[in-house]
Amino acid sequence: MRFDEAYSGNVFIMSNPNFDESQAVIYGMPMDWTVSFRPGSRFGPARVREVSLGLEEYSPYADRHLEEVNYFDAGDIPLPFGNPQRSIDMIEEYVEKILDAGKYPLGIGGEHLVTWPVIKAMHRKYPDMALIHIDAHADLREEYEGEPLSHSTPVRKACNLIGPENVYSFGIRSGMREEFAYAKESGMYMAKFDVAEPLKEVLPKLAGRNVYVTIDIDVLDPAHAPGTGTAEAGGITSKELLEAIMAISNSDINVIGSDIVEVAPQYDSSEQTQIAASKFIREMLLGWVK
After folding, report:
1. Which residues are annotated as a binding site for Mn(2+)?
2. What value does the mean pLDDT take over residues 116-145?
3. N or C: which terminus of the chain carries fewer CB neighbours within 10 A?
4. Is the dihedral of CA 129, 280, 200, 251 positive or negative?
5. Assign residue 164 a region: left if phi > 0, alpha if psi is -120 to 50, beta otherwise?
């Protein structure tokens, strides 16, 4: 499985075809094998790339141009349909190779379970890491209907690996009673409903630390992002998520990698969800790749 050859399909806007010259690697994780409601996020990475061609290369938020960051689009990992365990093993191996090459990994999902193998690979390189998790859902279940490999479990798995005191969740507005009880009792940080303001309060506490950031597009209200598998009313706006991304960019934390997941383009004929995701990726590239 090669990760350093130029992708033959549509690539993210202004991607450099030379892997060796790149600072960051964009890669897709087209998996939706464990979703609990609507499938389709396996089509997210490809469509987010395609709509990125409509972006301006200049960001007025960061006052930077994409030509200032060197990144390589490796395309999608060829995950085996319907096989969660093999898929997450392949993702972990893939990200480990990116890290071994000294590159910043930026993943596009896919359902949220794909973040779990990435965290495992990141933790081996950065055992002192923390996690910033921006999402509508707590994702703190130990299993879903008896299945431990589920898109509702990655943050609980991360707590077990890196310690709940190193996990910071924002925007949470859905989950089981037991998930919210675990968050309260375990020592992890959880901000319900809002993202930007509580994040700004937490970032100084994480100054100097290695932090992985995962964003589930369903943190946005369905009015702003209907193209997702498990939409939850009462979410934040695109403007608020951009504010949060910029707060991270302007902080003193060391972002070691990131992903954006759960874009399911077939539920949004207006394309606003995938267009928003591509814009968020632009800001992540400009602000988080050092």
Report:
1. 112, 135, 137, 139, 216, 218
2. 97
3. N
4. positive
5. alpha
pLDDT tens-digit series, residues 48-80: 999 999 999 999 999 999 999 999 999 999 999
Domains of the chain are 24-288 (3.40.800.10)
Q: pTM above the 0.70 mark?
A: yes
pLDDT (average), residues 111-132: 98
- Would you tell me how many other CB atoms lie within 10 Å of the CB of residue 269? 9
| Antiparallel, parallel or unpaired: β 254-261 and 210-216 | parallel
Task: Tell me what pLDDT residue 121 has.
Answer: 98
Please count the other Cβ atoms lying within 10 Å of the Cβ belonging to residue 267. Answer: 17
Among residues 179, 171, 168, the alpha carbon closest in space to that of 129 is found at: 168
Binding-site residues from annotation: 112, 135, 137, 139, 216, 218
User: Averaged over 257-286, what is the pLDDT?
Assistant: 98
**Both tokens assigned to 213:** 């950031």
Cis peptide bond N-terminal to 102, omega within 30: no
- Structure confidence by residue, pLDDT tens digits, 135-169: 999 999 999 888 888 999 999 999 999 999 999 99
Could you give the CA distance from residue 42 to residue 81 in angstroms, rounded to a whole number? 10
For residue 2, pLDDT beyond 70: no
Q: Enter the tokens of residue 92.
A: 């972990």
Scored b (16 or more CB within 10 A) or e, 176-200 reads eeebbebbeebebbbbeeebbebbe
- % residues pLDDT > 70 (the chain): 98
CA distance 150 to 116: 10
